[in-house]
């Protein structure tokens, strides 16, 4: 595609896009303010971009949400229905109430288009339409939460927008193309604050043409990307930083002259031949936050890893991945011993993840992993228990009936496991009578993860040759997640769209050991 932001505020004055026209002449934000391109010059390219696949990896407070609204109105003006996805209904409702409804009301042009839709549908309402369905001009917007699978059915759209990709249910996002499979348009905007490398919006951005914003130094003429660690701070000792300029100025990497970080710049693509159009947006050039405020956030991060993750994600618009945030082949290799995989054992703990196949991991009482594999039918697991007697736990979902039948065939040995949140249990809770266990998902994965980092869990020498084992063990990543600007946040484990069956089987086998320590019985763990 053609780079649309070459040093001119309007790339092609002869053929401006509808988005550009709406942004300049009609859009008003929730504070009743027009679009400010003096502070957000980088937005011009997004509003002029005609690519059908746009991916924006962004910081917070950079004005991209306003671009989404402008884009949606432009589509509605062309009679195109929009499927608009948010992480959940709460965030959808907040966005509709705080951002979308004010914009539709404060812009005279937008309000007229809403009235046009009401007349068309013979509605007499003066207030906003229902939260999940907005009618505008001759089109509609379906606003849904990604956590509801039913929301991804029965609505035919022409185009789609996904807000905060990383916080969305990745499994349901996979169904998104079905919503506009029969449309001749099928454009897709995906926007989000990144979390960890390769996941969600970062993975999408890396598969795009990867456009980065550059500004020019007036003193030496060098065009350069803005980089916190090259133009704002310097490391004086390991882990200790200071501002390169005590006033907080951004300095040229070549001549140290102050840069105007909000000056007219240009987008430059690392891979201009790729079809997907990707943008990386940082607070360094968005103009909404002063450098002094960014510096304070960075200093907090130097003393607190959670705050450092927030700085990378929210200020720089970059993914953050601390050492040990996920398992790696190197970590697993450090846990390999000289013993071989076993065919039988006693006093064992096992974990099995239920999917198209039944993935299992068996541990010995010393926490040595002694068997790894798959089974196709639940009946095959009967032989597994005979070969490795001990404690088993099986996930209650998705095959509740088959899991319960399996447990009933081996009374006293098999627990049915359900992952829950902190509002229900902080660690895990066992019901010995019902042979069930409720385990907090993040906490249980944290515990088994730590056992590998500490080297307590051990592997047989040929474990790396088991198909998919290393890949699936290394898939989940521990990331910090916030649901909105006011949310204090929490750590969660994300697997994206990649398989992680062995990792959960391993987690359940580790949970089996904890159950035995808690209730003093032998049990095997499945999911």
- Measured as a percent range, the helix fraction is 25-40%
Total helices: the number is 17
User: Rg to the nearest angstrom?
Assistant: 27 Å
- Count of individual domains: 3
Architecture blueprint of SSEs:
Elements: H1 18-25, H2 43-48, E1 53-58, H3 64-77, E2 82-86, H4 89-106, H5 108-121, E3 133-136, E4 139-145, E5 159-163, H6 170-173, E6 187-192, H7 200-206, E7 211-216, E8 223-225, H8 228-232, E9 233-237, E10 240-243, E11 250-251, E12 258-259, E13 266-269, E14 277-281, H9 283-286, H10 291-303, H11 305-316, H12 329-334, E15 348-354, E16 358-364, E17 369-375, H13 380-387, E18 390-395, H14 400-409, E19 414-420, E20 428-431, E21 436-440, H15 441-453, H16 469-473, E22 477-481, E23 490-494, H17 501-519, E24 524-526
Parallel strand pairs: 1-6, 1-14, 2-4, 2-5, 5-6, 15-18, 15-24, 18-19, 19-21, 19-24
Antiparallel strand pairs: 3-4, 7-8, 7-13, 9-10, 11-12, 15-16, 16-17, 20-21, 22-23
Helix pairs in contact: 1-3, 4-5, 10-11, 15-17
